[in-house]
């Protein structure tokens, strides 16, 4: 398991769910892993220990991905600790659902800032290092909701659709420097984020999925291993759906 051997990866929002699975899969493939968390401090500290147990270099940073200044500092700290950055995974995300008529400005701004502005913050901060070494893989976590829309998630869908446009633009801007930028659009993945949903909504989603099951965080992490590794050296500007065929 050495697909990522020697590569330094930074993953945002890895204290739980999909981000945590990506951190563990990357470490199993030999990557050194830096990751962020915000409110789940104990889980973040526990993950750092678990990763170190896999024999790679690992460090957790408590950092708000939506804060532009904090993102710059995070990148400087990561480079000071790891030397270079090869893979950036913009995974941090939240939901603040509600029908548009009842959606507050705080619900809108909160989701746009954490889900979309964070991707700008971290990608911009990493780009100067990627450009210097003429190598880099950026993986942005969008969602099938950003492709299809979802009633009650206008803020979330807009943030995730924004990530798709951002990903394709960055791929066009930076391809000549051998910097790749792709997005992953998970469908219904069983994490704390989806555990909040009503049981009937979950049952309806499962029934509509051709593979007839919810996805696991590792299903998404495996796609990240592909995009982070040199197996995908000729893949950029793409949105890979990891959704059990949900939108097919
Ligand atoms: N689960 C799904 O079905 C699904 C489907 C499509 C897309 N996605 C996307 O996949 C990503 C991960 O989702 P998940 O299901 O794993 O969610 P989750 O279990 O709720 O985990 C979210 C992670 O993001 C971190 N986070 C939240 N706000 C942050 C901030 N401001 N700065 C840094 N980290 C922050 C959280 O850290 P703390 O707890 O430490 O604050 C946590 O580690 C999200 O972008 C989500 O939109 C998920």
TrEMBL record:
Catalytic machinery residues: 156 (proton acceptor)
InterPro entries on file: 3oxo_ACP_reduc, KR_dom, NAD(P)-bd_dom_sf, Sc_DH/Rdtase_CS, SDR, SDR_fam
CDD domains, per database record: BKR_SDR_c
GO molecular function, one term: 3-oxoacyl-[acyl-carrier-protein] reductase (NADPH) activity
Source organism superkingdom: Bacteria
Keyword terms: Fatty acid biosynthesis, Fatty acid metabolism, Lipid biosynthesis, Lipid metabolism, NADP, Oxidoreductase
EC number(s) stated in the UniProt entry for this protein: 1.1.1.100
Reactions catalysed according to its record: a (3R)-hydroxyacyl-[ACP] + NADP(+) = a 3-oxoacyl-[ACP] + NADPH + H(+)
Domain Ketoreductase: start-end pairs: 7-192
Pathway noted in the entry: Lipid metabolism; fatty acid biosynthesis
PROSITE patterns for this protein: ADH_SHORT
Residues that, per the record, bind NADP(+): 91, 156-160, 189
GO annotation, biological process: fatty acid biosynthetic process
Protein purpose: Catalyzes the NADPH-dependent reduction of beta-ketoacyl-ACP substrates to beta-hydroxyacyl-ACP products, the first reductive step in the elongation cycle of fatty acid biosynthesis.
PANTHER family: 3-OXOACYL-(ACYL-CARRIER-PROTEIN) REDUCTASE (PTHR42879), 3-OXOACYL-[ACYL-CARRIER-PROTEIN] REDUCTASE FABG (PTHR42879:SF2)
UniProt record similarity statement: Belongs to the short-chain dehydrogenases/reductases (SDR) family.
Subunit structure: Homotetramer.
Protein name: 3-oxoacyl-[acyl-carrier-protein] reductase
Organism (species): Thermoflexibacter ruber
Lineage: Bacteria, Pseudomonadati, Bacteroidota, Cytophagia, Cytophagales
């Amino acid at each position: 398991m050495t697909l990522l051997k020697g590569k330094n990866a930074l993953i945002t929002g890895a204290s739980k769910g999909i981000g945590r699975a990506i951190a563990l899969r990357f470490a199993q493939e030999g990557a050194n892993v830096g990751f962020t968390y915000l409110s789940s401090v104990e889980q973040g500290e526990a993950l750092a220990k678990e990763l170190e147990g896999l024999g790679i270099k690992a460090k957790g940073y408590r950092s708000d991905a939506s804060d532009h200044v904090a993102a710059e500092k995070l990148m400087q700290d990561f480079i000071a600790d790891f030397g270079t950055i090869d893979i950036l995974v913009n995974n941090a995300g939240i939901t603040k659902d509600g029908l548009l008529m009842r959606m507050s400005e705080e619900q809108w701004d909160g989701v746009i800032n954490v889900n979309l502005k964070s991707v700008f913050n971290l990608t911009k901060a990493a780009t100067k290092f990627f450009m210097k070494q003429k190598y880099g893989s950026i993986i942005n976590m969008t969602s099938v909701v950003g492709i299809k829309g979802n009633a009650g998630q206008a803020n979330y869908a807009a943030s995730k659709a924004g990530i798709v446009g951002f990903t394709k633009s960055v791929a066009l801007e930076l391809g000549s420097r051998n910097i790749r930028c792709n997005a992953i659009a998970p469908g219904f993945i069983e994490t704390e984020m989806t555990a909040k949903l009503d049981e009937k909504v979950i049952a309806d989603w499962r029934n509509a999925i051709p593979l007839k099951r919810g996805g696991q965080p590792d299903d998404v992490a495996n796609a990240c291993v592909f995009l982070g590794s040199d197996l995908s050296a000729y893949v950029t500007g793409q949105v890979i759906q990891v959704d059990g065929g949900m939108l097919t």
